[in-house]
């Protein structure tokens, strides 16, 4: 069979793509807008037009019709049937400044809140919201709601300005403080009304976004002129649709220190095992990425795949082989992995944190004990040591690295532009590297789990050469 020349192939692809795109219908996810329930709101020109220092160049403003495609991988050789009746492309409103806005800057009273667990970059997002609102849109009433959702109704908000927040991006954690639980819808929306907030910026994870959906619904139900935006924060990277959360890369980078230490301890012992437990309640993204970038890991265990200890194809058999070959092994486990194997009392089965998340048992401590039992049983006269490192909070209680800090700036400014344009009940985040606005309801439902069928997991397997843990 004659091979097509590269030019011919390119032409074919271009033709097919052209056909595909010309017949492509974009399924644009509808974004809620304040005018949906307040039709009399009048648009105003963007104050950036009169900014004394910055003169918006051509192409600065985003057209209403600009979208970001959800899926950018396309198979141009897909059969003609599929192309003649293409599945509509999922598309989201592109983020960025609009020519027209729906808030008079002097009337804006903005609230910023952080909820859930920590994530590197939270302070940067707060800082950029404050500075962006102040500098871009001349907003002078900006408040921080402290201690998470409960702070709306139980604490006095604190006034924020660029001078106060100017070096917050260098600090880990959240200066505004955060908490789990305390979500009381009526009290929260009453407090928003009472304080006169008309823009609410909510930084938090999956639980927080579910709360934001309720807040938005209630505000819409009361027909209040208040914009609500979510900024997804998830060190576990368990929120779907967006590429990743700010802080995730920083956490992966921090995890390297723990893996390096585990490797050194294991290498320096006779039959040494270095065991590291990383964050990841229901997803193993941190563990997977830390494994891929380290290359010192012999076995990576995540919640999305099960494993077993004893017998053919089990963890013990694999580790025994590695110890024989290399004298040491490094094991990295996500906190949510193997939870079904750890014995629990009835009380432990019921234990929940303030937000209602199941409290996990320590998979690292359990594995360490199981490994020790196994070795003393099977090799009573041979030296063996397990060095267990749990860097849980060390990987998230740090300032964001440069890449994440940049992300924080873009996501915060995108959120501001969206709220100013009258959008509400949405989330600002990157999709395929482009910032977009996504209905918060969709984000609250979208999970992002490690796909163990895709290439990334295959890379892990090729780096570690670990078993599939398929029972014979
Ligand atoms: N289904 C839900 N509806 C309303 N609020 C929720 C829901 N789930 C969690 N929350 C609230 O969101 C906040 C943070 O949730 P949590 O699960 O602790 O962290 P994260 O947002 O980081 O996932 C808490 O105040 C919690 O009460
Ligand atoms: O001890 P805390 O503060 O509850 O945080 C621990 C948990 O936070 C997480 O990072 C998830 O937090 P978020 O849902 O807030 O992103 C889990 O991996 C971990 O179980
Ligand atoms: Mg969560």
Question: Could you characterize the architecture of this molecule?
Answer:
Strand 9, helix 7 and strand 10 (227-232) form a beta-alpha-beta unit. This protein folds into 2 domains: 100-246 and 400-445, Rossmann fold, CATH 3.40.50.450; 248-398, Phosphofructokinase domain (Rossmann fold, 3-Layer(aba) Sandwich), CATH 3.40.50.460. With 472 residues, the protein is of the alpha/beta class. It has 15 helices and 16 strands. Mean pLDDT is 93; it is low at 1-14. The chain has helices at 6-22, 80-84, 122-137, 151-154, 162-165, 185-195, 206-221, 248-267, 285-294, 315-326, 346-350, 363-378, 402-420, 440-445, 455-464; strands spanning 26-28, 44-45, 67-69, 89-94, 100-101, 110-114, 142-145, 158-160, 199-204, 227-232, 272-278, 299-301, 328-334, 385-389, 426-431, 434-439. The chain binds adenosine-5'-diphosphate, 1,6-di-O-phosphono-beta-D-fructofuranose and magnesium ion (MG). Adenosine-5'-diphosphate (ADP) binds at residues 115-117, 148-149, 180-183, 204-208, 210-211, 214, 355, 357. The site of adenosine-5'-diphosphate has 19 residues, from helix 7.
Can you tag this structure with a few keywords?
single chain, 472 residues, alpha/beta, Rossmann fold, 2 domains, 10-stranded mixed β-sheet, 4-stranded parallel β-sheet, 15 helices, 16 strands, disordered N terminus, binds adenosine-5'-diphosphate, binds 1,6-di-O-phosphono-beta-D-fructofuranose, binds magnesium ion, 6-phosphofructokinase activity, metal ion binding, ATP binding, transferase, cytoplasm
